[in-house]
Structure formats: structure tokens, C-alpha cells
Amino acid sequence: MIKSYFRFLLISFVAIDSLSPYILAHFYPKYQAISQVISELGEVGSPVYYGFSFFFVLAGSVLLVSLFGLVSYLKTQTSVWMSRAIVGTLASFAIGECLLSGLFSIEGGSTLSVIIHQVASDLGSLGMLGFPFLISILFYRKDRSKTYLFFGLGILSVFFALINGYAQLMDSSYMGVYQRLSMVMMYLPVVLFSSKLPKMSTIKAVYGTPSYAAVN
């Protein structure tokens, strides 16, 4: 069942993780999306503290479940090591940026919880930045246009991630905007990849049951 619906689960993850901050902000009158980062919704004392944890853990769980179907799909398209590398980038995001960030709050100090939250979030985001570059390699032999597309998206993702990091380092009054732009660029390759994958029935009809068939 997961093999059949992993595309839907990937899109669901993006929807949950992208929309939940706006839903939570509606119940946090003092929160300013332009100047505040999303993790501030999960600070101790926030009126949406538990909602923040719930949505982040939910998003991470949905993404992790989708990976069981994705890895099975990728094994019909490329080598085992490439399959694991691609899934690894998404798994690091699910565990670091979603699950651990949701379970360990920002408390406004240098506590263990804050350290775990920040390190996990950074490592998860770093893993996600590698996703479009690996996908560009995956498409290289069959469709160069998609290779260039995902490689370009990867460059843009890194660019906006650096801007986001600089904005937070400098405590910019628009760091909330930069963070959300960075998120859009990280999630766009996932959405496009999910929408461009051929169905398993199509692959079997064209290739039979190959182990290393190229992606259409």
C-alpha cells in the first residue's frame, strides 16, 4: 500500500509542514510571521506550543513512512547506494528538522533542549539541500532537461538557505520572510519530483522488472 501511495504521502508532508505554521500563527496573536522564525511558535509558554509539536512530529512521521515506498521505487530505477542516498537526505530532514525539532523546544537559553533543536534542525536542512542534486544525477542519463532543472533548483535552495542563515545571524527584521522563502525552495524539488515520477505499471510495461532502469 505504501508503495502505491508514497507520492501522496510526500505531497502530504509538504502540505503539513508548509501550512501548519500559518494555522498555528492564527492562534498566536503576538506572532509576526515577517520578523519571527517558525521555531518561535514552539517556545515554552507559546499558546500553540503543543500544536507546534504535534504538527512537526506528524510531518516527520508522514515523511518517514513515505520513504519505505520511495526506496522500493528507486531500487527499480537506480543503484542501491543512490537509492539510499536520496532517501537518506529526506530521512535526515524528517528526523532532524521535524521529529527532534518538534520534541525539543526553544526555551530562550543555551539549554540542552535548545542545542538539540538547533543542531537537529540544521543537520536536517543540510540533508534536504542535497536532495535536488542527487535527483539531478538520477535523471542524467535519460532526461538532461530534468537534470538541469533539479540542479538549478539545488543551487537556488542553497542560495536562499545562505540568505536565511545570514538573516537569522544578523537578527534581520525580515528573517521570517527569508526563512519561508528558503522553505519554498527546499520543498519545490520534492513536489516536482513526486509529480514527475512515472507509475510502477508504466515502468513494468516498458522495462519489465529491471533493477537499474533509468527514470522517465
TrEMBL record:
Protein name: DUF998 domain-containing protein
InterPro entries reported for this sequence: DUF998 (IPR009339)
Taxonomic path: Bacteria, Bacillati, Bacillota, Bacilli, Lactobacillales
Keywords recorded for this protein, A-Z: Membrane, Transmembrane, Transmembrane helix
Pfam families the record matches: DUF998 (PF06197)
Keyword Disulfide bond attached: no
Ranges that cross the membrane: 49-74, 86-106, 118-140, 147-167, 173-194
Keyword hit for Transmembrane: yes
